[in-house]
Every structure is written in C-alpha cells, then in structure tokens.
Amino acid sequence: MELIPILPHFHAALNLASALLLFAAFQAIRRGDAVTHRQRMAGALIVSAIFLVSYLTYHAAVGNVKFAGTGWVRPVYFTLLITHVALAVVSLPMIFLTVRRAPWRLVTTSDAHRRIARLTWPVWMYVSVSGLVVYAMAFHLYPPTP
To answer: Membrane-crossing residues (predicted)?
Structure first.
C-alpha cells in the first residue's frame, strides 16, 4: 500500500488532534491544572512535529496540489491557504520561544511564558483549525482530478 495518497487524510487527523489538545490544554490552565496543561501541550507539540515532518515529506514527493474549485471559492480558498501557511511559518519560532519560557518546575509561574503564550496559542489554534478547512476544501468539497 502506497502511503503518499493517504497522507493528506493523516495530516487532517494530526491537525484535529493538535486543535483538540490545544483546547484541552487551555481548559486545564484556566482551571489551574498545570500538570494536565503541560501534558496536553507536550502532546500538541509532538503531534505538530509529526505533522510538519509528514507534510514536508508529502510535498517533496507530490509538489503542489492544484485546487479544483472555480469561481468565487478560489479567492476564498487561497486567502485561507495563504494566511494558514504564513501563520504556520510565524508560529514555529513563537512555539519554540513559548516552550523555552515555560516554567520547568510546576510550583512556579513565568510571566514571560504567559505573555508569549497568549499570542502563540491563538495563532497555533488558527493554524490547526484552518488546516482542517483547507483540507476539507481541497480534498472533499473540491477534490483534485486525477
């Protein structure tokens, strides 16, 4: 079984997992549960790293996938795609900085971590959710022609 054709679906599953983990981590820290927050964020980081490696592998093998939609949906799709990709690129150093500033002892808090996390989390969440929308549009609503 060739893996390349199923990778877009795998990427969508990873984006969904990332979004769910990010949401669960947000809920945990709002409850003051730093242990659960750290576990969920570590999960989101791992899932996102797997996504990045798989995504780059897929596009190295396939190149660009032509969007099959026509008319008014094309500028909508490409606007979403451009913001998704741009924020994905921007989010990477933000995520590294946020992790670096995280308190490594659970009894402490870090104002520097909290400040950057308030910017990083919504960007990371947007990238995860918009990745799902891009996938749905490119592979289900307007599937590529063989």
So the answer is: 6-29, 41-58, 78-99, 119-142
For residue 93, CA distances in Å to 35, 87, 90, 98 come to 24, 11, 6, 8
| Long-range own/partner contacts, residues 90-93 (CB < 8 A, 24 or more apart) | 90/123, 91/120, 91/123, 91/124, 91/127
Report the pLDDT value the prediction gives residue 101, as an integer from 0 to 100: 87
The answer to whether the pTM exceeds 0.90 is yes
Classify residue 146: in a domain, yes or no. Answer: no
With a cut of 50, list the residues of the chain below it in pLDDT. Answer: none
Q: Residue 46 falls within a domain, yes or no?
A: yes
Residue with tokens 């769910």: 20
Q: What is the DSSP letter of 6?
A: G
Domain count of the fold of the chain: 1
Do the Cβ atoms of 122 and 51 come closer than 8 Å? no
**Domain contains 25:** yes
Q: Tell me what pLDDT residue 59 has.
A: 94
Cβ-based neighbours of 67, under 8 Å, separated by 6 or more: 74, 77, 78, 81, 137, 138, 142, 144
For 116, the 3-state DSSP assignment is helix
